[in-house]
Automatic annotation (TrEMBL):
Keyword presence, Hydrolase: yes
InterPro entries from the UniProt entry: Beta-gal/glucu_dom_sf (IPR036156), Beta-mannosidase-like_N2 (IPR054593), Beta-mannosidase_GH2 (IPR050887), Galactose-bd-like_sf (IPR008979), GH (IPR017853), Ig-like_fold (IPR013783), Ig-like_GH2 (IPR006102), Mannosidase_ig (IPR041447)
Protein name from the UniProt record: Beta-mannosidase B
Domain Beta-mannosidase-like galactose-binding: 12-190
Glycoside hydrolase family 2 immunoglobulin-like beta-sandwich domain boundaries: 201-310
Keywords for the protein's UniProt record, in alphabetical order: Carbohydrate metabolism, Glycosidase, Hydrolase, Polysaccharide degradation
Organism: Talaromyces amestolkiae
SUPFAM superfamilies: (Trans)glycosidases, beta-Galactosidase/glucuronidase domain, Galactose-binding domain-like
GO MF annotation list: beta-mannosidase activity
């Protein structure tokens, strides 16, 4: 018989397991599975949207309860010799599943999928009999606390959320984080289905090996795991096909299944393979492999997987800076500028494929090449990785551990091992995934809590006896799983981590640099000097767009920067003083909400610019910096956080400054830092400055021109004649120093001035950069003579678009356009200097729509 499956997505009801409250005691309808209990309560008018105002508090009672979900299905027809199974792709979290009152599954790990063979139970009845499937979800919050109490000898330390969370394999941000609410979801968060089959493909792994760039060939071993009833197993034949863009390029038929390990395996040699590349480096070619099972000439089941042919290395070599840490894809060194990713919603099943895709599209449009799936969230949905594969974004995949000293008793170790196997198996065909990382900041917890970590002790059994038993997870269990199930993918024990050295060591491994914002609260102007070999976290908070604040702040009276509800929507410890510090140090502050939002966004945009611009430059210095992943791309609810794009996918200005710093060709100009605070606001006497070009092209760019102007902030006139560097040859995938010893003599030229650089290639301006005197608060930025002239044109594709011609009489800082849903601006957060008109393209604005609002510093 052919494989038959039925999604059990509708027809469910649910109720509070223990409630004596009558209205929650009755079965309520569930709109659709997958879901969370919060979504289902909202649908039944039992809960208000927890994202608005203080509603999160009104939703806390849900966190404390246990729930039951119920479904009835009819016994399907079961042909002789067939198997029947229930497949659960994810249960959140303490789930007890019964079929007609008999327990068939107990699960306590949200990250695991399960299959339960129910053939025997169903064969006892006849076709059409009704079966009751019930899933009880025990309260994870109280179960976590109970487990914690059961193990008083473990050192329960860490940061963020109720630390009892460490005891439970459930997304850790559900317990609340410094950017997220406490929403303890429960429910059937991924698909459930009923399957009837004689044989099925349980797994298909296109394992690419021997990628030989020069000889232009690659081997792909396709390994299919088979699940078949004993009567079918023997005479099963597998047929494998490989195709590219819908055309079959190779096939192998009549392959027998090895009945010992239930595997069918073939090897394809692909000549002249089209490689998969991150965007900006080449195409995102995806091949397809299909395996089809047949018995006596009848097809029983088939499965298809898309895969890419590429090599990925994490290059760690001793060098003049210590030990490198960067990625090499298909032999090409790739500076990995990108972002860290948190789950895009606190209510996970509400994220559909389109929303995942829009996030990844935003990354690509922003020039970002790597996304880090952070360890306090989830192993993401298929749709997430598919979007990364198709659009060319590299994935740094953390295992799901974050900010804590995790326990490692035998049962939890076994659960973690299963979780790792399940997810690595599920994800290993995605070419976008180039690294697996053991955890987020758990080695920092080890350092801060002074837990035992003797790097030289290589006996794993000893690690389990220390007060830092999770070392066994990060340095034994997880690397073993990756080595077995995805051997070509690099494994790194933690983020940050570097050869067992202190995690803040800038010479080795990756680094989370939080001494801007947290820690010593350094000035963001020196961000580039604070980096390590790979900066996998750093950030600066900014308020989201006003329309996002309008969504969650219900009363106009609360729309001021320090209102109670706005503070409630900022979960970061000390956010008031940290935001205030950076504002007060740098800008003339304001109390009206719109200006305040803008000012926090300017600070964030500048912080990111100083980081990315400098680290990109360091890439050219023997890969001193291999990449930068800002904290954080996104939000899980409408909030005030370090995100550069808010919950509703509205970019903050920093999105554009990062985009500019990551262009394939960029120009940079930067004067040396003069700390106005420690010198008691004495102006500098002299400032050295540097001028350079950064390139991620693989070829030299010949005959480029770099121009540098010296413009008065006060009058807008050129204080010196521009300097033009002609016939510049731009080094491939590195940095070209144009000038390393420029000097501004502030005595001779006392007027504050900007350094304005432009890069021309083939007669076109391809990049700009403007360096400003710091801090902005000392500058009079009034009366800039800014002109924004709209024109309507058509794009090459015939689409109506608006262009804005932007010019100014005096230098303008951080011109930001309104973000309107459905409307895209080609650029924003721009600096404008006299004599250099810039063009911004706007798409999605219909005739008669109000023009986009804009503002700039000092307006
Ligand atoms: C079948 O699988 C077993 C276990 O992996 C292996 O030892 C054996 O060599 C395989 N047989 C064939 C014919 O490949
Ligand atoms: C795979 O199975 C589906 C469903 O039975 C069938 O429609 C399809 O033709 C099969 N595809 C291949 C390539 O065998
Ligand atoms: C431009 O630079 C190249 C490479 O350094 C050199 O060969 C060429 O002569 C230069 N052309 C001019 C016009 O200076
Ligand atoms: C493949 C490739 O692009 N390699 C270049 C990367 O950058 C180094 C240093 O700039 C060059 O020497 C390589 O040729």
């Amino acid at each position: 018989m052919a494989f038959y499956q039925q999604q059990l997505s509708t027809g469910w009801t649910f109720r509070d397991r223990d409630s004596e409250q009558s209205d929650l005691d009755t079965w309520m309808p569930v709109p659709a599975i997958p879901s969370t209990v919060q979504q289902d309560l909202i649908a039944n008018n039992k809960l208000e949207n927890p994202y608005i105002g203080f509603n999160e508090l009104k939703a806390r009672w849900v966190n404390e309860k246990s729930w039951v979900y119920r479904h009835e299905f009819q016994r399907p027809k079961i042909p002789t010799g067939a198997k029947v199974a229930l497949g659960f792709d994810g249960l959140d979290t303490f789930a007890s599943v019964t079929l007609d009152g008999k327990t068939i599954l107990e699960s306590d790990n949200m990250f695991l999928g399960h299959r339960v063979d129910i053939t025997e139970a169903l064969l006892k009845s006849t076709e059409g009999k009704k079966y009751v499937l019930e899933i009880e979800f025990d309260c994870a919050q109280s179960r976590a606390r109970e487990i914690r109490e059961k193990y008083p000898d473990h050192k329960w330390v860490g940061f963020n959320g109720d630390i009892a969370r460490l005891a439970v394999r459930k997304a850790q941000y559900h317990w609340g984080w410094d950017w997220g609410p406490i929403i303890m979801t429960a429910g059937i968060w991924r698909d459930v289905r009923l399957e009837v089959y004689a044989a099925r493909v349980a797994d298909l792994w296109p394992k690419t090996t021997n990628i030989d760039f020069d000889g232009k060939r690659a081997s792909v071993t396709a390994i299919a795991k088979i699940d078949a009833s004993s009567s079918t197993s023997k005479d099963l034949k597998a047929s494998f096909r490989v195709s590219l863009r819908g055309h079959e390029i190779a096939r192998q038929d009549d392959i027998s299944v090895n009945t010992t390990d239930q595997t069918a395996k073939v090897k394809f040699e692909i000549t002249d393979p089209e490689l998969w590349w991150p965007h900006g480096y080449g195409s995102q070619t995806l091949y397809e492999v299909t395996v089809s099972l047949s018995h006596d000439g009848t097809e029983l089941h088939n499965t298809t997987k898309k895969f890419g042919i590429r090599s990925a290395e994490t290059v760690q070599q001793p060098d003049k800076h210590g030990k490198s840490f960067f990625f090499r894809i298909n032999g090409v060194d790739v500076f990995c500028g990108g972002s860290c990713w948190i789950p895009a919603d606190s209510l996970l099943p509400s994220i559909d494929a389109e929303r995942y895709r829009k996030w990844i599209e935003l990354m690509v449009a922003g020039g970002q090449v790597m996304i880090r799936v952070w360890g306090g969230g989830i192993y993401e949905d298929e749709k997430f990785y598919e979007a990364c594969d198709e659009l060319g974004v590299l994935v740094w995949q953390d295992f799901m551990f974050g900010c804590g000293n995790y326990p490692a008793w035998p049962e939890i170790l076994e659960s973690i091992r299963q979780e790792a196997v399940y997810n690595v198996q599920r994800l290993r065909h995605h070419p976008s995934i180039v690294i697996y990382v053991g955890n987020n900041e758990d080695y920092q917890v080890q350092e801060q809590a002074k837990l035992t970590y003797d790097y030289d002790d290589k006996n794993p059994n000893n690690w389990l006896k220390t007060d830092f038993p999770a070392r066994y997870i990060y340095e034994k269990v997880l690397p073993e799983v990756v080595a077995e199930y995805s051997p070509a993918t690099f494994y790194h024990p933690g983020s940050p981590w570097g050869d067992g050295k202190i995690t803040s060591d800038p010479t080795v491994g990756d680094m989370h640099q939080w001494n801007v914002w947290h820690g010593t609260q350094e000035k963001y102007q020196i961000f580039a000097t604070l980096g390590g070999r790979f900066n996998s976290e750093f950030g600066m908070e900014a308020f989201p767009h006003l329309s996002t604040i309008d969504y969650f702040v219900e009363n106009d009276a609360d729309k001021f920067p320090q209102s109670h509800v706005l503070d409630f929507h900022n979960k970061a410890d000390g956010h008031e003083r940290r935001l205030a510090t950076y504002l007060v140090e740098n800008l003339r502050t304001a109390t009206d909400l719109e200006t305040y939002i803008y000012l926090t966004q300017v600070v964030q945009a500048e912080t990111m610019m100083f980081g990315y611009r400098g680290w990109r430059k360091q890439w050219g210095d023997s890969r001193h910096c291999g990449g930068a992943l800002l904290w954080q791309l996104n939000d899980c609810w409408p909030t005030i956080s370090w995100a550069i794009v808010d919950y509703f996918l509205r970019p903050k200005p920093a999105y554009y400054t990062v985009k500019r710093a990551l262009r394939q060709l960029t120009v940079g100009v930067q004067r040396e830092h003069h700390d106005w605070s420690v010198t008691h606001a004495q102006p500098p006497v002299k400032s050295g400055y540097e001028l350079w070009v950064a390139s991620s092209y693989r070829h030299e760019v010949l005959n480029a021109t770099v121009e540098l102007r010296f413009l008065s902030v006060v009058s807008g006139r050129d204080l010196r004649a521009p300097v033009v560097y002609d016939n510049v040859t731009i080094t491939p995938n590195g940095t070209t120093d144009v000038l390393t010893n420029g000097v501004i003599d502030h005595i001779a030229e006392p007027e504050p001035h900007v350094l304005s650089a432009r890069l021309w290639v083939d007669g076109q301006v391809v990049a700009r950069d403007v360096d400003w005197p710091q801090p902005f608060k000392y500058l009079d930025l009034s009366d800039r003579g800014l002109e924004v002239r709209p024109e309507t044109t058509r794009s090459a594709a015939g689409e109506r678009q608006q262009i804005l011609r932007v010019s100014a009489r005096k230098p303008v800082k951080c011109l930001v356009f309104e973000e309107r849903d459905g409307v895209r601006v080609s650029d924003s957060a721009m600096d404008i200097v006299p004599g250099d008109e810039q063009v911004v393209t706007i798409t999605g604005l219909a005739e008669g729509d109000a023009p986009l609002k804009y503002r700039y510093l000092g307006q």
